[in-house]
Write a structure and sequence with these properties.
By secondary structure, this protein is an alpha/beta fold. It has 2 domains: 75 residues, Methyltransferase, Methionine Synthase (B12-binding Domains), Chain A, domain 1 (Orthogonal Bundle), CATH 1.10.1240.10; 126 residues, Cobalamin-binding domain (Rossmann fold). It is 55% helix and 11% strand. Strands 2-1-3-4-5 form a 5-stranded parallel beta sheet, with helices on both faces. The chain is globular.
Length: 220
């Protein structure tokens, strides 16, 4: 097993000490920071996402893996020059008004940052006006909304309505996620996509970016 494979396995196992030891060894062997992150840590996180979807891993184990991955990324990033990887896009991310759950949102934000997406995390209990203002201020390409309570799901529609009223809806792709949601709900409120976990969120955004790359750039 080579070092990148060992890093990926370490992420899945969630063994922070072992993982950081392998990352240091990889850096000492001259493996680049971005190669470690993209070829090792991200591969491991993708595997964690797949295992979560199939029921092999559960949320507590996913969190342990995410924490280990974050430490590995921070360690590897010490080898990056200022400027690092070029930003691909900007996402405004938040848990909607009335909901204070943030584990899933935080995992999504972490994985997107690894993949070169600038994440503006608004936190929890975020109102429509805060989403709209942040999209306008940052020129965001994506809006990500999370809700874990059925009583707060409707707030997502309010955010989309607010974006439309501000003339921003055509400028952003809206992705929603959370335990009580599904693709049917996302379509009903006018969202562009539903993502059930961090791996699917990252995959969806990468697909949208690939699609955008083939289109004529929009004018803001």
């Amino acid at each position: 097993m080579d070092m990148l494979d060992s890093i990926a396995v370490g992420v899945v196992e969630g063994d922070r000490q072992k993982l950081c030891t392998v990352v240091r060894a990889a850096l000492d062997d001259g493996i680049g920071a971005l190669e470690i992150i993209n070829g090792g840590v991200v591969v491991g996180l993708d595997d964690v996402g797949r295992r979560f979807q199939t029921g092999e891993l559960f949320l507590p184990e996913m969190i342990v893996s995410a924490v280990a991955a974050q430490e590995a990324i921070e360690l590897a990033s010490e080898g990056l020059e200022d400027g690092g990887d070029r930003k691909k896009a900007t996402m405004v991310l938040g848990t909607v008004r009335g909901d204070v759950h943030d584990i899933g949102k935080n995992l999504v934000g972490m994985l997107l940052r690894i993949r070169g997406i600038e994440v503006v995390d608004l936190g929890v209990n975020v109102g429509p006006e805060e989403f709209v203002e942040s999209v306008s201020r940052h020129g965001a390409d994506f809006v990500g909304m999370s809700a874990l309570l059925t009583s707060t799901m409707g707030a997502m529609a309010d955010v989309i309505s607010g974006l439309s009223a501000a003339g921003l809806r055509d400028d952003v792709r809206v992705i929603v996620g959370g335990a009580p949601l599904d693709a049917k709900f996302a379509a009903a409120i006018g969202a562009d996509a539903y993502a059930r976990d961090m791996a699917e969120a990252a995959k969806t955004i990468e697909s949208m970016l690939d699609e955008r790359a083939t289109q004529t750039p929009r004018v803001r």
